[in-house]
Amino acid sequence: MAERSEEVKLLGMWASPFSRRIEIALTIKGVSYEFSEQDITNKSALLLQLNPVHKMIPVLVHHVKPISESLVILEYIDDTWQNNPILPQDPYEKAMARFWAKFIDEQICVAAMNVVGKTGEEKDAAVEATRDLLKFLEKELVGKDFFGGKNLGFVDIAATLIAFWLMRTEEIVGVKVVPVEIFPEIHRWVKNLLANDVIKKCIPPEDEHLRYIKDRMVKLNIKPA
Amino acid sequence: MGDKEEVKLLGVWYSPYAIRPKIALRLKSVDYDYVEEDLFGSKSELLLKSNPVHKKVPVLLHNVKPIIESLNIVEYIDETWNSSGPSILPSDPHDRAIARFWSAFVDNKWFPALRAAAITKSEDAKAKGIEEVEGGLLRLDEAFVAISKGRSFFCGDVIGFMDICLGSFLVLLKAREKLKGEKLLDESKIPSLCKWADEFLSDDIVKNVVPEIDRVAKFLGELEAIAQSASRS
C-alpha cells in the first residue's frame, strides 16, 4: 500500500503545452498521478500556495513538496524514476538536449507567439523570424526518428509545443508557419509522434483543442491573419 | 596511458555568465585554456563555429566538442568530472529541482529585469524595474534562508550550483553600486543574502576568478557613455 507521501499530483490545464509535457513524462515512466485541472483565469488558492513565485501551472507535487517550471519538473521526473530515461546518459548529449529544450521555450515559443494577431509586413517578418529558428531544429532531425534518437526524449517532449500547438493552430491563426516544403524533417517527426502510444494518449483531442483556441482568440479580440 | 584532456573556455572578462564555468572548473581542479573573445570587435572563427545558434560566450570546448549556455556548462562539468572535487549540484532530486528552479528565476526573471532597468531611458520604467529587482532579491533572501538551513552557502558548506548562478552577478551589483550609488545589496532588507554574498566573494576560488569591482564599474561607465552618445547622434 503506497504511503500518502508517495502520491503524485499534477496541477495542470488540459490545453496547456507545458502541462501536457508533464503528463507525457509521467506516462513514459509509468507513474500514476492525480490530475487537478486548474482554471488559469481564476487561480485557485492551492495553486497560489504551491507556486507563489510564478503562480502558474504545471506544478508537480511529490512527497508533499511542490515543483514548478515544466523543464525543471521533467528533470525531476527523470532523476526520481530511473526507468525509460528521458534525458540522454552521455553528459555531452545531455547538455545538447538541455540547450534545445531551452531554445524551444525561450526563442521559438516567443517568436511563434509574436506571429499571432499580426498583419501584413509585420506578420511576414514574425513568420520569417520563427522559421529561421525552426531551421535549427529541422537540421537536428536529419537521420533521426525523434530528437532523442530511436525513442522519445527530453527535446521531443518540449517540442510537442511545436507539433501540437504551433502547427495545429496554423489554420486558425491564418498563417502556415511550418510548411512541409521548407520543413520536411519536422513534418516527418510529427508523423512519428502521432504513431506513438504515449503521445496519442497525452495530447489534447484535436477538435476540442481547436475550438478552445478559437474561443480564446475571440475573447482576446485577436483576428486570424 | 590516457590522452590529455583538452579543455578550452571561450569567454569575456566582464561577463557574469563566463564566471560560472570558471568557478566550476576550479572546483573540480580541471586545467583549462582560457580564450578572451572580443565581442565588440569581431568574434573568433572558433566561437562562431562552436555556437552557431547564439554566437555568444561562454562556450566550453571539451576535446573539441562545444557545450553552450553557462548553466548547461556547469552541469556538464559536474557530470563529467564527477569523481573530482565537491558535487556542484545536490544529489537529492528534490534539492536539485529547487536549485534549478531558483537558477531559472535568476536567469529568466531577475537578471532580465535588472538589465531592462539599466538600459531603459524612461525614469518610470527604471523605477518599476528596480522595484522588481529588489522584490526578486527579497525572494532570493527568503529562499536562501529556507534552503541553506543555517549553512554558509545555498546547499552546504561548499559552493554549489545556486551559489554559482546568483554569485556570478555580485561583482556587477557592487560595480553598479559604485557607479550609480544604487544599493541593491542592502543589509537592512536582505541580511542573510548579504552575508552569503560576502562569504561567496571571499571564497578562495571565487576571489581568483571574478573581475575587480572597480574595473567593472569603469567598464559599465564606458558602455553607458557610448550608449548615450549613440542615442544623441
From TrEMBL, chain A:
Q: Where is the signal peptide?
A: none
Where in the numbering of this chain does the GST N-terminal domain appear? 6-85
What PROSITE patterns does the entry give?
GST_CTER, GST_NTER
Give the SUPFAM superfamilies listed for this entry. Answer: GST C-terminal domain-like, Thioredoxin-like
The record ties this protein, via CDD domains, to: GST_C_Tau (cd03185), GST_N_Tau (cd03058)
Catalytic activity line of the entry: RX + glutathione = an S-substituted glutathione + a halide anion + H(+)
Which parts of the sequence belong to the GST C-terminal domain?
Answer: 90-213
Q: EC annotation?
A: 2.5.1.18
Its Gene Ontology molecular function terms? Answer: glutathione transferase activity
What are the coiled-coil residue ranges?
none
Q: What is this protein called?
A: glutathione transferase
From TrEMBL, chain B:
What are its E.C. numbers?
2.5.1.18
The lineage's top-level taxon is Eukaryota
| GST N-terminal domain sequence ranges | 5-85
Give UniProt keywords alphabetically: Cytoplasm, Detoxification, Transferase
Recorded GO molecular functions are: glutathione transferase activity
Pfam families on file? GST_C, GST_N
| Protein location | Cytoplasm, Cytosol
GST C-terminal domain: which residues?
Answer: 92-219
**Catalytic reaction annotation:** RX + glutathione = an S-substituted glutathione + a halide anion + H(+)
SUPFAM superfamilies per the record?
A: GST C-terminal domain-like, Thioredoxin-like
- What biological processes does GO assign it? toxin catabolic process
Under the heading InterPro entries, the entry gives: Glutathione-S-Trfase_C-like, Glutathione-S-Trfase_C_sf, Glutathione_S-Trfase, Glutathione_S-Trfase_N, GST_C, GST_C_Tau, Omega/Tau-like, Thioredoxin-like_sf
Q: Could you say which protein family the record assigns here? A: Belongs to the GST superfamily. Tau family.
Classification via PANTHER family: GLUTATHIONE S-TRANSFERASE U16, GLUTATHIONE S-TRANSFERASE, GST, SUPERFAMILY, GST DOMAIN CONTAINING
Output this protein's name.
glutathione transferase
This chain's source organism reads: Cardamine amara subsp. amara
The organism's taxonomy opens as:
Eukaryota, Viridiplantae, Streptophyta, Embryophyta, Tracheophyta
